[in-house]
Specification:
This protein has two domains: 2-382, no CATH class; 385-524, Tetratricopeptide repeat domain (Serine Threonine Protein Phosphatase 5, Tetratricopeptide repeat, Alpha Horseshoe), CATH 1.25.40.10. The protein has 24 helices and two strands. It has helices at residues 2-14, 26-31, 42-47, 61-74, 78-104, 107-119, 124-128, 133-155, 158-174, 181-191, 196-225, 238-257, 276-294, 299-312, 334-352, 357-378, 385-395, 400-412, 416-429, 434-446, 450-463, 468-480, 484-497, 503-524; strands spanning 234-235, 319-320.
C-alpha cells in the first residue's frame, strides 16, 4: 500500500515535468556531447575524467554511463531523460521508506519521511535538471546501502552486507558525497547504545569493509584525476569559508522550511541576509532547535541531524569546486536527514498525544498536498532556458547572475537584442561581472563596433589582468587595427594564462604570433 502511494505521489507531482526540454548545462553535457552518444565510448566514460562544460575534472563514471544508456533508448528525446529522472526519484523515495522503516520499527513515520522527499519542491531542481540527476542517483544508492546494512544487522545475513557494499560503491561512482555514508554508519552504531566492544566485534569487520570500498574508490579517482580530490582544486580561505557558511546555512534552512522563493540562480552569499541582526537571529534559532532536538536522545532524530550535517560538508565551500555557492540540487542528500528528523518528531507527538492524532494526520496531509502543489507549479520553469531564468529573475530581480544567464538563454534562442539588454542589466548590478563584460564585448565586435568591444575587454583586464578570453579578443582587435606589437603581447598573455584546456587554439595562436612577428620584422626593415 505505502510503496504504491509513494509511486503515485511522485507520478502526480512530477508528471507535468515530462514535456520539459533540455535546460542549462544539459546542452553541453548531453545534447552537444558526442562522448555520451555512442556505446563505443563506454570505456572512455568509465576510465577517464570528465571535463564536459569546462576545465574542472570530475570522475563520476556511472552517471555518465547512464546518460549513454538514455541516449540508446531515447536519442535526444528530452521526455525520456525526464522519465528516467522521475523513476530514480521514485526509487530514492521507496528506498528511504525501506531504510526508515527499519530505523523507526514502524511504517507510518517512515512513510512520512519518504513522502517529504517525494513531493517537496526544493527537490524539483535535481529531478527536473537532467544534468543534476547524479544527486538523486547517488542518494538512492546511499540509501540502498543503508537499508541493506540495517537488514544485514537485523538478520545477520552476509548477502545483505555484500548488497550494501555494492550499493555504496555504485553511489560513489555517481557522485562524491555518497562517501558520507561511511562515517554515518559509524555514528549510527555509536548511537545504538550497545557497548563499544560488542559493536567493534560484531560490526567492526563490516565497517572496515566499507572503509576498504571507500579506499578503492579514492584510489580509482586518484588514478584518473591525479589526486583523490581531483585537479585543480583550491581550498577556500578560512575567513571566506566562515563568511560563506554563516550565510549559506540559514539560507538553505529558509528555502527548505519556506519553499516559496525557489530559484535556479541564487544571489551571492553576502546578499542572502544583508541585515546582521536577521543573520544572528537565524543562527540563534538554528542553534536552539538543534539543541532541543539532540537533548531528546532519540536515535532517529540524532542520526538525522548527523546525516544533514555530514551531507552538507561536501557543499559547504570548504573545498571550492567551480560551481554555485548555493544550489537546491546540493540539498537532495542532506535533506534526507531533515526529513527523518521531521518524521521522528511527528511520530513522537503521535505516540505521546493520542488525542491529537486526527489533527496531526490532517496537518500532515495538508502539508504534503501543499508541497506537492508547489512542486507541480514549479516544474514548468524547467521547460527551457528562457523559462528557467525568467523565473529566476522574477524571484530575485537584482541578481546579476540571473540576468546574465537569461541573456545567454536569449542569445541561444536567436534574440541578441534581448540578450544584450539582460547582459547590460547584469553589468549595472555587478560592474565587475567578467562574463557579462565578455559577452557584451563579443556582441559589439560581431557588429563591427570595435571601439566599444575593446572598451569592454579592457574593463575585464581591470578586474582580472590574467583573463585569457579578454587577452585573446584584444589580440584579435589589435591585429585588425594594425597594432601588431600590442596584438602579439595580448596573444602571448593568452598563451601564458589559458585555463580552458584548449590545446588546439593555443597551438594556432602560437603560429599566429610567429607570423605577426615576421610581419613586424619585415615592416621594421
Amino acid at each position: 500500500m505505502i510503496p504504491a502511494l509513494l509511486v503515485a505521489a511522485v507520478a502526480l507531482t512530477y508528471g507535468n515535468a515530462l514535456p520539459n526540454g533540455f535546460a542549462w548545462d544539459d546542452r553541453q553535457i548531453i545534447v552537444e556531447n558526442p562522448t555520451g552518444h555512442s556505446l563505443a565510448n563506454l570505456g572512455v566514460v568509465l576510465t577517464e575524467c570528465d571535463r564536459t562544460g569546462g576545465s574542472t575534472p570530475y570522475y563520476r563514471p556511472l552517471n555518465r554511463a547512464l546518460y549513454l544508456l538514455d541516449y540508446q533508448l531515447f536519442g535526444l528525446g528530452a521526455w525520456g531523460y525526464h522519465l528516467v529522472s522521475l523513476l530514480w526519484h521514485a526509487a530514492a523515495a521507496l528506498i528511504l521508506f525501506v531504510a526508515a522503516r527499519r530505523l523507526f520499527r514502524a511504517d507510518l513515520p517512515a512513510a512520512f519521511a519518504a513522502l517529504l522527499l517525494a513531493v517537496h519542491p526544493i527537490h524539483a531542481e535535481p529531478v527536473n535538471f537532467i544534468s543534476g540527476r547524479n544527486n538523486v542517483i547517488a542518494t538512492a544508492f546511499a540509501l540502498g546501502a543503508l537499508a541493506a546494512y540495517l537488514r544485514a544487522r537485523d538478520e545477520g545475513r552476509r548477502a545483505w552486507c555484500a548488497v550494501s557494499l555494492a550499493s555504496f560503491f555504485l553511489g560513489l561512482l555517481c557522485k562524491e558525497p555518497a562517501l558520507m555514508l561511511l562515517p554515518l554508519l559509524a555514528i549510527l552504531e555509536a548511537l545504538s547504545g550497545e557497548p563499544w566492544r560488542e559493536v567493534a566485534r560484531q560490526r567492526g569487520p563490516v565497517l572496515a569493509a566499507f572503509a576498504a570500498v571507500a579506499a578503492l574508490y579514492l584510489g580509482l579517482r586518484a588514478a584518473v584525476l591525479s589526486s583523490a580530490l581531483g585537479s585543480p582544486v583550491s581550498y577556500t580561505r578560512p575567513a571566506e569559508v566562515l563568511s560563506n557558511v554563516l550565510h549559506i546555512v540559514p539560507k538553505y534552512a529558509a528555502v527548505a522550511l519556506f519553499p516559496l522563493q525557489l530559484t535556479a540562480v541564487y544571489s551571492r552569499p553576502a546578499t542572502y541576509f544583508a541585515n546582521p541582526l536577521v543573520l544572528a537571529l537565524a543562527w540563534l534559532l538554528l542553534a536552539v532547535a538543534t539543541f532541543l532536538l539532540l537533548r531528546q536522545k532519540r536515535l532517529v532524530t540524532r542520526f538525522g541531524v548527523a546525516w544533514a550535517v555530514l551531507g552538507f560538508l561536501p557543499v559547504s565551500t570548504i573545498v571550492w569546486f567551480p560551481s554555485a555557492e548555493i544550489a537546491e540540487r546540493y540539498l537532495y542528500q542532506p535533506l534526507v536527514g531533515v526529513w527523518l528528523v521531521a518524521a521522528d518528531q511527528a511520530w513522537r507527538l503521535w505516540q505521546e498525544r493520542p488525542r491529537l492524532r486526527t489533527s496531526l494526520a490532517a496537518v500532515a496531509a495538508a502539508l504534503l498536498v501543499a508541497l506537492a502543489a508547489r512542486t507541480v507549479a514549479r516544474n514548468p520553469d524547467w521547460r527551457n532556458d528562457e523559462a528557467l531564468f525568467t523565473a529566476a529573475v522574477g524571484v530575485e530581480p537584482d541578481n546579476a547572475d540571473a540576468h546574465f544567464a537569461l541573456g545567454d538563454a536569449h542569445a541561444r534562442a536567436g534574440d541578441p537584442e534581448r540578450a544584450r539588454a539582460e547582459w547590460t542589466r547584469a553589468l549595472e548590478l555587478d560592474p565587475r561581472n567578467v562574463l557579462a563584460l565578455a559577452n557584451l564585448g563579443t556582441y559589439h565586435a560581431q557588429r563591427g563596433d570595435s571601439a566599444r568591444a575593446e572598451l569592454y575587454f579592457r574593463r575585464i583586464l581591470e578586474v582580472d589582468e590574467r583573463d585569457d578570453v579578454a587577452h585573446f579578443n584584444l589580440g584579435l582587435l589589435m591585429e585588425r587595427a594594425g597594432h601588431l606589437d600590442e596584438a602579439i603581447a595580448h596573444y602571448r598573455s593568452f598563451i601564458e594564462h589559458e585555463r580552458g584546456g584548449r590545446a588546439e587554439l593555443v597551438a594556432r595562436v602560437r603560429e599566429r604570433v610567429l607570423a605577426l612577428e615576421r610581419r613586424s620584422d619585415d615592416a621594421a626593415r
